[in-house]
Design goal:
two-stranded antiparallel sheet, 11 helices, globular
Length: about 325
C-alpha cells in the first residue's frame, strides 16, 4: 500500500509539474496581450488550465481516499452526467416515473454493487434489468407519443452516464496477482492516457492537421491530429507501465485500444450534440463545458479496458 501511494504521489507530482508549466505559459501569453484587447483563445486556454487544476486536485483527493472516495466521486459525476444527458432528450411528463427511477434507484444501486464488488450484477444490472423495467414504468405514464424514442433516449442516458462511468471505479474490484493494493493506479493510468490523448490530438491537429477526420461530426478533428495524438499517448502509456501490472508492450497495446475507443466515444457524443444543436453538454466546468464533455473519451474506453484487464490479468 505504501508503494502504491508513493507511485500515485509520483504520478500526481508529474501531472502537477506539467500544469505549473502550462499555467506559467498561459499567464505569460496573457501578460503580453495589449491592455483592453483580450484574446479569446488565450482566455479560453487559461480557463481550461484553471479547470484542470480543480479536476486534478479533486481526482487526487478521491484517489487518496481509497475505494470509498473513488466510488463517491464517480457516482457524483454520473449523476451530473445523467442530468446533462437527460436535459438534451425529448422526455415528457409521462416519463417522470422512469426518470425518478433512473436517478434515485438505478444509479445508486449500480454504484452500490460496484462498492460490494458484485460483478455478476453490476455488469448486467443496467443493460438487462434497467433496460427492461424502465420502459414498463414509462408505459404507466399514459402517453404513446414518440414512446420508442423517449424510452431509447433514457436507456442511452443510463448506459452512457452511469453504466460506462461506473466501470472506472469498478477497476478497484479486480484482483490482479502481484498488484494487490495498487488497483487505484489502474484508474490513474486509464484517465491519464485517455485524457492526454485528447490534448495531444488537439496539439498535433494544430501543428500538422490537414485532412478532416469527420467533418460533419467534429470539424476540428483531423486524421493527422488523431494519428499523432494516439501514437504519442500510446508511447506515454507504455512509459507508464511501471504503475501497472503490464509489461511495457502490453501497456502500449492497451493504450492504443483505449485511445482509439476514446476517439470513437468523442465522435459519437459529438454526433449526439450536433443532433441536438448544442456546442457543449453543459457549463458546469469553466472552459470545459459539462461533465460529459470531459468524460466523453473515458466513457467508451472504460468498459473495454475493464474487461481486457479482467480477462487478461485478473483472477476469476
Amino acid at each position: 500500500m505504501n508503494a502504491a501511494r508513493s507511485d500515485l504521489f509520483a504520478l500526481l507530482a508529474g501531472v502537477g509539474v506539467v500544469l505549473v508549466i502550462a499555467t506559467l505559459i498561459g499567464q505569460m501569453l496573457a501578460a503580453r496581450q495589449p491592455s483592453g484587447d483580450p484574446s479569446p483563445v488565450i482566455d479560453n486556454l487559461n480557463a481550461r488550465i484553471n479547470a484542470w487544476w480543480g479536476m486534478v486536485c479533486l481526482l487526487g483527493l478521491a484517489f487518496l481516499g481509497g475505494r470509498g472516495g473513488v466510488v463517491v466521486l464517480f457516482a457524483v459525476c454520473s449523476f451530473a452526467a445523467l442530468r446533462e444527458f437527460v436535459t438534451l432528450t425529448r422526455t415528457t411528463r409521462a416519463d417522470h416515473r422512469a426518470l425518478v427511477a433512473a436517478f434515485f434507484v438505478v444509479l445508486p444501486l449500480q454504484y452500490l454493487f460496484v462498492w460490494q464488488s458484485w460483478y455478476g450484477l453490476y455488469s448486467i444490472f443496467i443493460p438487462v434489468y434497467a433496460f427492461l423495467f424502465l420502459p414498463i414504468l414509462a408505459v404507466f405514464g399514459g402517453s404513446t407519443d414518440r414512446y420508442l424514442v423517449r424510452v431509447a433516449e433514457t436507456q442511452w442516458a443510463l448506459m452512457i452516464a452511469v453504466f460506462c462511468v461506473s466501470h472506472v471505479p469498478a477497476l478497484l474490484t479486480l484482483e490482479v496477482p502481484g498488484h494487490a493494493g495498487r488497483e487505484v493506479l489502474l484508474i490513474a493510468w486509464l484517465v491519464v492516457v485517455v485524457q492526454i490523448s485528447d490534448v495531444l490530438q488537439y496539439v498535433w491537429g494544430k501543428l500538422a492537421g490537414r485532412t478532416k477526420l469527420a467533418p460533419t461530426v467534429s470539424p476540428s478533428k483531423t486524421v493527422e491530429g488523431a494519428v499523432g495524438g494516439i501514437a504519442s499517448a500510446t508511447a506515454i502509456g507504455a512509459a507508464l507501465f511501471w504503475i501497472t501490472p503490464f509489461r511495457w508492450w502490453e501497456a502500449a497495446g492497451l493504450a492504443l485500444v483505449v485511445t482509439l475507443m476514446g476517439l470513437a466515444g468523442g465522435l459519437v457524443l459529438s454526433a449526439i450534440k450536433r443532433d441536438r444543436g448544442v456546442k457543449d453538454w453543459g457549463h458546469l466546468i469553466a472552459g470545459h463545458g459539462g461533465f460529459i464533455d470531459r468524460l466523453d473519451s473515458v466513457l467508451f474506453a472504460a468498459p473495454v479496458f475493464f474487461h481486457l484487464v479482467r480477462y487478461g490479468w485478473a483472477t476469476p
